[in-house]
Structures are given as structure tokens and as C-alpha cells.
Design a protein that fits this description.
Blueprint (H helix, E strand, L loop, with lengths): L11 E4 L1 H9 L2 H11 L4 E4 L1 H15 L3 H14 L1 E2 L12 H12 L4 E3 L3 H4 L8 E3 L1 H11 L4
Parallel strand pairs: 1-2, 1-4, 2-3, 4-5
Length: 147
């Protein structure tokens, strides 16, 4: 069964910056998730604050030039639904993580995929599941959405 023949996934997913950095720079399970997003097997949600954080980390920590960042990230940005959060939250002790939550809550995400302990250790928020990459992939496999 091809991806286009699979039933549409009800999942709307926010990929935290640490997942995207891992996907772009190191591969592994984060890269599998990124490839699923690029193949439109799941709908990724993003926002300007999340884009800014990703661009800043790639430039500052990995010394990537702006044109390379654009070339690398543009396919994901084009495949994503852009969310423009109006409400601000102050749930997470690590302030930048609140931008991830704002995008997820405003965009009615089903999942946040992250390796960030601050987010992973939060109490339940609505119907939002906050999972590590392996756990997210296991859920995808369990539904038959990922062969």
C-alpha cells in the first residue's frame, strides 16, 4: 500500500526543534519521522517562533549558512501547516518550550514529538500526547499507518 492509498491520519504533529536538529544532523528515528512528514504521511504543524528557533540553532550551534538552512528546511516548511498562535501559555518551566505548546494547542495537534525532558514530564494537557520519537513511531506502526 502506498502512502497515498493509506487512510488519512487524524494526527496533527508538532516536531520539536531538538527532533528536527537530530533528523537533519544525525539521522535515526527523528529522520524517519521527518521523512514521513515530507511524504505527507502525517501533518506537521509549525509556527514562526519554531522556525526562528530552528534557524537560530542551525546557524549558532552548527554554523550553517542561511542559504543552506533554507535549502535544508524549506521542504518541511512547505509540507507543514502554519499556525499563528494568539494565546500565550506559561506551562513549561523552560520558556521556549511554551512556544511548542502554543503551536500544538492552537493547531489542535494530537502529538508533540520531542526529546526534551521539560515537555515529556508535563502533566496531561487536553488530548495532547507528548512522546519521544520511538514511542511515536510505535503508535504509528500500531495503527497500520506506517508499514
Amino acid at each position: 500500500m502506498t502512502i497515498s492509498e493509506r487512510p488519512a491520519l487524524p494526527w496533527r504533529v508538532v516536531l520539536d526543534t531538538n527532533i528536527l536538529i537530530s533528523a537533519y544532523r544525525f539521522g535515526g528515528k527523528p529522520k524517519v519521522i521527518l521523512e514521513l512528514a515530507l511524504d505527507k504521511a502525517l501533518l506537521t504543524l509549525t509556527s514562526e517562533p519554531l522556525k526562528d528557533e530552528l534557524v537560530n540553532v542551525l546557524a549558532r550551534k552548527f554554523f550553517m549558512k542561511p542559504d543552506l538552512i533554507e535549502e535544508t528546511c524549506a521542504p518541511l516548511w512547505e509540507a507543514s501547516e502554519w499556525i499563528y498562535p494568539k494565546a500565550h501559555v506559561n506551562i513549561c518551566p523552560d520558556e521556549p518550550d511554551n512556544r511548542v505548546l502554543e503551536c500544538a494547542l492552537e493547531g489542535h495537534a494530537s502529538y508533540i514529538v520531542t526529546g526534551d525532558g521539560h515537555l515529556l514530564n508535563l502533566p496531561s494537557i487536553r488530548d495532547l500526547a507528548i512522546l519521544m520519537p520511538n514511542d511515536f513511531l510505535l503508535r504509528l506502526r500500531a495503527t497500520g499507518a506506517m508499514l
